[in-house]
Amino acid sequence: MCANLCSAEPAATVASYRCQIVEHYWVNQRYKYIRLESDAPIAPLTLPGQFYQLNCPTTAEEQPFLLRPMSVYGAGPEPGRIEFLYNVTGVGTRALAMLPVDAHMDIVGPLGNTFTFAPSFRRILVVARGVGLATMAPLVRQAANAGVEITAVMSARTSGDLMDKQFLRGAAAEVHGVFDADGTSSVEAVESLIRRLINTQRPDAIYTCGSHRLLMLLQRILQDHPDIHGEVAMEQRMACGMGVCLSCVRLFECDGDKQFLRVCREGPVFKIREVVGEVEFG
């Protein structure tokens, strides 16, 4: 199988949890933060990179039909605490954004695999844009707790969209912001920056999420650095989130063998070198 077999085993227990909304507010004009509390100890079951299916409400204006997959932004320290950071873009997230504090909602998970991470790493490099910030925030926390140095290349439309504080959540890191507004987020500029960081810092692993353009760039760069481990957390449209509907199947290559794999089941974390062709990010 082409999926990430070296990562920690995902939690075996997948269940539906009734949660109460404890906090829910706008972080900026596009993103909202929501914190849920469950009577069940879901935080210890949830690993960096995993996601939940959220049952978004039906309102007079919005009628979402399917559950919405959402990567975990944070879990714990309380056993029933789970957090999400989401971009309000479609029917489901617009309906979700209308839920008040003290309301209840159902979530299903945890789903998917997790990032490969070793406490023996000296330094990691994370490259993120948009929703990738939420997906990789638990990985950043895991590295910080292990005493691993962190370098972050964060891409955004403008400096006001960066959300570096929300991404790092107090973790010490060397941050490089690149922006569409001034051209520093162009492929050429980011490639020059990442190659310089690799040559000077020699990270043990590189992780990315949130941009197909950045993924393809890192795949090209890693061809010159076979000693560096590289992983991508793929954001994909999916219906069931459990591998049954096959709506999130994508093409990967492992040891010369091309395979169609389910992002929700064999992923969402894959080796960067294994991704083939065009990949649609949510």
From TrEMBL:
Gene3D superfamilies: Dihydroorotate dehydrogenase, electron transfer subunit, Nucleotide-binding domain of ferredoxin-NADP reductase (FNR) module, Translation factors
PANTHER family documented for this protein: DIHYDROOROTATE DEHYDROGENASE B (NAD(+)), ELECTRON TRANSFER SUBUNIT, DIHYDROOROTATE DEHYDROGENASE B (NAD(+)), ELECTRON TRANSFER SUBUNIT-RELATED
Gene Ontology molecular function terms on file: 2 iron, 2 sulfur cluster binding; flavin adenine dinucleotide binding; metal ion binding; oxidoreductase activity
GO BP of this protein: pyrimidine nucleotide biosynthetic process
Species the sequence originates in: Cupriavidus yeoncheonensis
Protein name in UniProt: Dihydroorotate dehydrogenase B (NAD(+)), electron transfer subunit
Pfam families, per the entry: DHODB_Fe-S_bind
Record-linked InterPro entries: Cyt_c3_hydrogenase_gsu (IPR012165), Dihydroorotate_DH_ele_sf (IPR037117), Dihydroorotate_DH_Fe-S-bd (IPR019480), FAD-bd_FR_type (IPR017927), FNR_nucleotide-bd (IPR039261), PyrK_electron_transfer (IPR050353), Riboflavin_synthase-like_b-brl (IPR017938)
